């Protein structure tokens, strides 16, 4: 198995310290282009695509394998092993943050810090927990995706981006969604939005940053409070911005928070 080809791994940058970027659902590594230039001179940057997204090897996708986020976490560990990485600072967005968390729980030796952008261990509203979606609404959304993937991308992208005054960002996200293999994206969506990793959270011992947005329809503020209460070694920062993709819509504020945490 060629791990680097499977996940279209790209290594760039000039520094000795490694940043590993883990994309959220529906995005490939290009989604980080608003923030990566700031890191180029002082870090080694490792970017990749989940199987089925971007320029990954679609032939490597096994629907029997990718039935949980654990398999995506193993892909992250495979990349770390293949590149002989150590003391990694992992930056994960949305479900990518949970994938990074699971990887660090399984093999903490690789990781120095976990930086989570808009993370959520569970997107569903349950007794005593507000994840943001009632189960019926989530099932309706996934059914819409099954029936009309492009229509879903066009209607859901504004909901995720959360900046209606900047339609170019919404268009960029919708375009990213449509670059995915639709059949793989549909399964990954079910794995993402119906996953529940709340019981795993307390197992993470790696120092981490929880970076949330003040107005986020995908991961409401209660999610950040839950994670902060459960994580033994976490810092919670709320950016005064809207949306679920601050590395796209608010890169300056995002970079300021990430750099301050890494420096500390």
Automatic annotation (TrEMBL):
Residue ranges occupied by any AB hydrolase-1 domain in the UniProt entry: 19-254
SUPFAM superfamilies named among the record's database cross-references: alpha/beta-Hydrolases
InterPro entries linked to this entry: AB_hydrolase_1, AB_hydrolase_fold
PANTHER family found in the cross-reference section: ESTERASE-RELATED (PTHR43039)
Family the entry assigns: Belongs to the AB hydrolase superfamily.
Protein name as annotated: AB hydrolase-1 domain-containing protein
Origin species: Hymenobacter swuensis DY53
């Amino acid at each position: 198995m060629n791990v680097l080809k499977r996940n279209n791994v790209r290594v760039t940058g000039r520094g000795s310290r490694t940043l590993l970027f883990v994309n959220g659902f529906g995005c490939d590594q290009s989604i980080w282009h608003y923030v990566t230039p700031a890191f180029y001179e002082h870090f080694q940057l490792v970017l990749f695509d989940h199987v089925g997204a971007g320029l990954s090897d679609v032939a490597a996708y096994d629907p029997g394998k990718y039935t949980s986020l654990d398999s995506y976490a193993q892909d992250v560990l495979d990349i770390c092993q293949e590149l002989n990485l150590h003391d990694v600072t992992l930056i994960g967005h949305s479900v990518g943050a949970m994938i990074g968390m699971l990887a660090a729980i399984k093999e903490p030796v690789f990781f120095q810090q976990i930086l989570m952008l808009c993370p959520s261990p569970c997107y569903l509203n349950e007794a005593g927990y507000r994840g943001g979606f009632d189960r019926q609404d989530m099932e309706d959304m996934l059914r819409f995706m099954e029936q009309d993937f492009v229509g879903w991308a066009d209607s859901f992208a504004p909901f995720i981006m959360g900046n209606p005054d900047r339609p170019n960002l919404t268009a960029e996200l919708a375009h990213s969604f449509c670059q995915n293999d639709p059949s793989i994206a549909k399964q990954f969506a079910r794995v993402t939005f119906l996953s529940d990793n709340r019981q795993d959270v307390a197992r993470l011992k790696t120092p981490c940053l929880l970076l949330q947005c003040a107005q986020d329809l995908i991961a409401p503020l209660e999610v950040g409070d839950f994670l902060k209460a459960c994580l033994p070694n976490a810092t919670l920062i709320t950016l005064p911005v809207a949306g679920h993709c601050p590395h796209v819509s608010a890169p300056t504020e995002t970079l300021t928070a990430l750099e301050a945490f890494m420096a500390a």
